[in-house]
Amino acid sequence: MEKLKIKNLDIHSDDTLIQQMKEALYACPSALKFLKELGMSEEVMDRNITKIYDFVRDINYCRKCPGIKKCKKDNAYVISKVTYSYGVVENQLIPCPEILKRVSFERQFLVKDFSDEWLDTIMSDVNKSKAKTEAMEIYMKYLRNESTDWIYLTGGIGSGKSYFAAALSIDLAKRGLKGKSPICFINSSKRILELSDLNKQKSDEFKKKLELYSTVPVLVIDDFGHEFKNDFIRDAIINEIITTRCNKKLFTIITSNFTLDEIEVLYSTSNAGAIMSKQIVKTIKAMCKKEINLGDLKLY
Questions:
Q1: What residues contact 63, with CB distance under 8 A and at least 6 apart?
Q2: Crossing angle of helices 130-143 and 161-175, rounded to 10°
Q3: Rounded to whole angstroms, what are the CA distances from 210 to 207, 214, 273?
Q4: Is the pTM of this model over 0.85?
Q5: Domains identified in the chain and CATH numbers
Q6: Distance CA 222, CA 152 (A)
Q7: For 86-174, where are the E strands, in sequence order?
Q8: Residues near 199 by beta carbon (within 8 Å), at least 6 away in sequence
Q9: Which of 47, 111, 118, 242 is the most exposed place for a label (fewest CB within 10 A)?
Q10: What is the pLDDT of residues 110-149, one digit of tens each?
Q11: SS3 at position 88
């Protein structure tokens, strides 16, 4: 990590260095105000400038925070805090507020099957295409408790379905709204196979995970349709998750390279299976109202 350099710092002598620290302090109104509110006189500030300087430097750097990933401070991810009690000045290091925010919203994800690099995503980063605006309207109605409609995002490879779904779930996690977390963002291929294997090996754990995906307040099923398929997966896993979430009116986002009509064909593994497959798709269509096609262009 590149170190933050002190601009124009002349270190030919201790006296020069001390003087430049003092000048930096008196050129920072926010630091001066804070220290005076602690009860410090200018004499106390001057006498303890070496303990105060890191605090001043952090204020000047952090007011234009470049973001967690681009932080170039020597003490990245922590900030200096000054205390003053009984005439004693102390400098403490405390966690960066941005790190605390990150930890707080990351805890909202019980399962997070997307890249950590996406955690810095904000909604203003998302392309404002007509299709995404349409999906955003559904999302905003959910935030305002006006609707529990689901979002079904389809489109070709590279159309940004997963990224957009992650952006919505990250935004929701950051809001920390009561009843709208925790969140599970699951890769369908990975987690459905995991459930199928658990059913054969650890039935109790299978039931717990299936219950989690069926009842978590917010579920994102990413890459739906690419999972391994058989009658058990369709009837005991997919149908259970979809039907339970429908009955409980739990917000669900689904991304897929396939349309719902294609999903129905994919899950019609037999004549009897075709009936169940049709019912699953019928339920999703009822909850989504319509499919939103993001097209085939790369948008990120």
A1: 30
A2: 30
A3: 5, 6, 21
A4: no
A5: 14-98 (no CATH), 107-293 (3.40.50.300)
A6: 10
A7: 88-95, 109-112, 151-154
A8: 206, 232, 236
A9: 47
A10: 999 999 889 888 888 888 889 999 999 999 999 999 999 9
A11: strand
